[in-house]
Amino acid sequence: EVQLVQSGAEVKKPGESLKISCNGSGYSFSNYWIVWVRQVPGKGLEWVGLINPADSDTRYGPSFQGQVTVSADKSINTAYLQWSSLKASDTAIYYCARRLTAIRGFLDAFDIWGQGTLVTVSS
Amino acid sequence: DIQMTQSPSSLSASVGDRVTITCRASQSISSYSNWYQQKPGKAPKLLIYGASSLQSGVPSRFSGSGSGTDFTLTISSLQPEDCGTYYCQQAHSKPWTFGQGTKVEIK
């Protein structure tokens, strides 16, 4: 079964650091980009960033550039999202997803999603 | 950034009804439009990609259409399990952006 499994919920204080993970199985992990998406509880979806596990090429959404770091370890089929200094406004559910693309046509979508990791930042 | 505007923001319909959700992009995105369904407490699920292609395993009552700036998701015969929030997303250019969501409820 193709799946992405994320690390568990976290409760942190402002200023603390955090690294959450996303482990892929059932497919060739290095062959697909991984994206991260944020959802503030009760709100919509925002694209955070993405990474190519094959060479760690990364891109970030403008609201997240410099605020988070996306990384990957292809040897253990795992992508990461990390913060060096959390803020209360980082409180949200973070999803990883697999990016599915094709050379021809208009296919560029997120077909497999992790279950989400709830990050709560509160003093 | 490309803005994606969905309408309506919510709707209530009866089982068997035909339901239509629209999404308008702030500039042309060709056919790089995707639709996702999200149920409470769950991750989004891909329904439609490339404006009109049905993702594998998704019931055929779901369909998508449109190109350029205007896109539509249609549920031909609403079923109880279709309740949830639906999001459009553009994959034409980064930053990828989503619509604000349409909440679908069963009457």
State the end-to-end CA separation of chain B.
36 Å
Helical fraction of chain A equals under 10%
Annotation, overall tally of beta strands of chain A: 11
User: What amount of the residues of chain B lies in strands?
Assistant: over 45%
User: How would you state the average pLDDT of chain A, rounded?
Assistant: 96
Terminal-residue CA separation of chain A: 40 Å
- Based on the structure, what is the oligomeric state of the protein chains? heterodimer
Rg value of chain A: 14 Å
As a whole number of angstroms, the C-alpha radius of gyration of chain B is 13 Å
Question: With helices defined by DSSP (H or I, 4 residues minimum), what is the helix count of chain B?
Answer: 0
Biggest sheet layout of chain A: 7 strands, mixed
Overall, the morphology of chain A is globular
> What is the helix tally of chain A?
0
Order of helices and strands of chain B: EEEEEEEEEEE
Helix and strand pattern of chain A: EEEEEEEEEEE
Structural class of chain A: mainly beta
**Shape category of chain B:** globular
Question: Could you describe the 3D structure shown?
Answer:
The complex is a heterodimer of chains A (123) and B (107). Chain A has 123 residues and is an all-beta fold. Helices cover 0% and strands 53% of the residues of chain A. Chain A is built from no helices and eleven strands. Chain A has strands at residues 3-6, 10-12, 18-25, 34-39, 45-52, 57-60, 69-73, 78-83, 92-101, 108-113, 117-121. In chain A, strands 2, 4, 5, 6, 9, 10 and 11 form a seven-stranded mixed sheet that branches. The radius of gyration of chain A is 14 Å and the shape is globular. Chain B is mainly β. Chain B is 0% helix and 50% strand. Chain B has strands at 4-7, 10-13, 19-25, 33-38, 45-49, 53-54, 62-67, 70-75, 84-90, 97-98, 102-106. In chain B, the strands form two sheets. In chain B, strands 2, 4, 5, 6, 9, 10 and 11 form a seven-stranded mixed sheet that branches. In chain B, a hairpin with a 6-residue loop joins strand 9 and strand 10. The interface between A and B is medium-sized, with 23 and 26 residues.
